[in-house]
Amino acid sequence: MPTPGPAAAASAVDPEAILGRQAARESAARTYARSLPIVPVRAQGMTVEGADGRRYLDCLSGAGSLALGHNHPVALQAIRELLDSGAPLHVLDLATPVKDAFTTELFASLPEEFARDARIQFCGPAGTDAVEAALKLVRTATGRSGLLAFTGAYHGMTAGALAAGGDRAAGLGGASGRPVRLPFPYDYRCPFGLGGPEAARIAARWTESLLADPKGGVEPAAGMIVEPVQGEGGVLPAPDGWLREMRRISAAHGIPLIVDEVQTGVGRTGAFWAVQHSGVVPDVMVVSKAVGGSLPLAAVVYRGELDVWAPGAHAGTFRGNQLAMAAGAATLRFVREERLAERAAALGERMLAGLRALHCLLPAMGDVRGRGLMLGVEIVDPEADADPLGARPAAPGLAAAVRQEALRRGLIVELGGRHDSVLRLLPPLTMTDEQAETVLERLGEAVHAASAAHRGLPPARAGEYR
Ligand SMILES: Cc1ncc(COP(=O)(O)O)c(C=O)c1O
């Protein structure tokens, strides 16, 4: 008798039982599994099918790692070809044709001035591993230990990366030296009560004067680490002019600028690398997520003159994931050849316009923002008083209700940002126009339904708010 295929196996699974066993066996620290109680068994492009037969449009995309969506034929073909070729799958950090091709494709995608003299260190498979490597690299190269990082930052969950992040709730932040926290522009909840270019100018001015002040209490910094668009911080694009100021100020102090492109890279924001919007040339770039073509891969790329660490200064068993390099090279090539960054820019603009239209109709949508296909909607309490800038208080409960209403309507979205009240959209760059329309429709209905329930009104009918 033939072995049952995956489809037969999927139809035999009991999703409720699996979810029950997961809740009983897995760590209390599990995250997405709590808010998205589904059991995916098949996925293609933007569509995920659960064991219960329900289909979802996935706007989480493996937390932004699936630039081409699930199981894209280009990535699958690269994986299959490697599997069938007899090439070793585990090679530590040895040279292979697969790694050579990946590095060539990655370097070809980098800003030219940066790529010309770049070195790469492959790291353990997660973004946080590459952040650790970047911090170690600049500390070794400069002989300093201080670090400059920003409000709202997220760089991962290992000790050094956690310390660089701004989230106190994530814990252990002080374990490896507390960085100096600098202001990252956040128009909607501007710490200076201004918003806009004036606030960005003041944020830069504060950074400049703090670093220049001999009594400012700032330890000499080994590096300044910044995300060109903060994702976990609440989808906050860094204004280009402000980022250029950070480049100017860090250069003036001889401080290497580390740009964390873990989430923003590979076309996501409408440029191949988000830093290219501003024309800033970093000293160090951290890459992961989409560079592995849906498989785990992370690296730190940096200017040659920083390459002064000793052999073995940064090691790790799993730094040579050949399948990820094959899938990653194919993905980078496809994004370049199909001009998917441009597609993300155009579709992102249209999505943003659609979200702005919903924002006018749905007062729970306090702010909409983003760059390319990295979009966010800040959910607020529509009945609370607004502050002088017009911002209402964050509404985490309502945001969670919107996420649940979206899931009921077949849309996967996650929350992030301050108080977990920003809906984050990270659809694949291959999303079709029709899928984009459906996302907007389902999202609008979800916000409307959750808002009605919040006010104690009966459930809304589809499309009723329009
Ligand atoms: C900007 C940024 N840096 C680093 C990380 C950490 O990556 P990982 O979760 O793969 O460790 C993330 C994860 O979301 C991220 O968004």
Automatic annotation (TrEMBL):
Its cofactor is pyridoxal 5'-phosphate. Keywords: Aminotransferase, Pyridoxal phosphate, Transferase. It comes from the Bacteria. The keyword Cell cycle does not apply. The keyword Transferase applies. Its EC number is 2.6.1.76. It is an enzyme of class 2 (transferase). Pfam families: Aminotran_3 (PF00202). Pathway: Amine and polyamine biosynthesis; ectoine biosynthesis; L-ectoine from L-aspartate 4-semialdehyde: step 1/3. Belongs to the class-III pyridoxal-phosphate-dependent aminotransferase family. NCBIfam families: dat (TIGR00709). This is Diaminobutyrate--2-oxoglutarate transaminase. It comes from Streptacidiphilus jeojiensis.
